Amino acid sequence: MAIAYPMQDIAPLDRPLIITQAASFYLPISTSQSPRPNCVTYTARNTSSRTFTTVYLNRRNDKGEPSQYSLNFLLPKGKLEPNDVIVFDLCDRSFVNVEAKEF
pTM of the entire structure? Predict the structure, then answer.
């Protein structure tokens, strides 16, 4: 049986509240020459046994500043299951890695 207490009866936490983030998994990458001139085709494969719901392309601009782009629109069935792949082209030298997270 659940007992409801008025809000004033709830004591504040005596320890800090810890909010954790999902651990990142960096997908292995293979590359090939793109049919598009001056571009590279990147293939990222989920070699883990985990299913991911969020995937990011991490890049750096010509000043070295990092940026992150969602690749979720490429996810088959809205998630990246074990052995699934994502394939995309980049036409600059900005690639850093592909990061997957479970949320």
Answer: 0.76
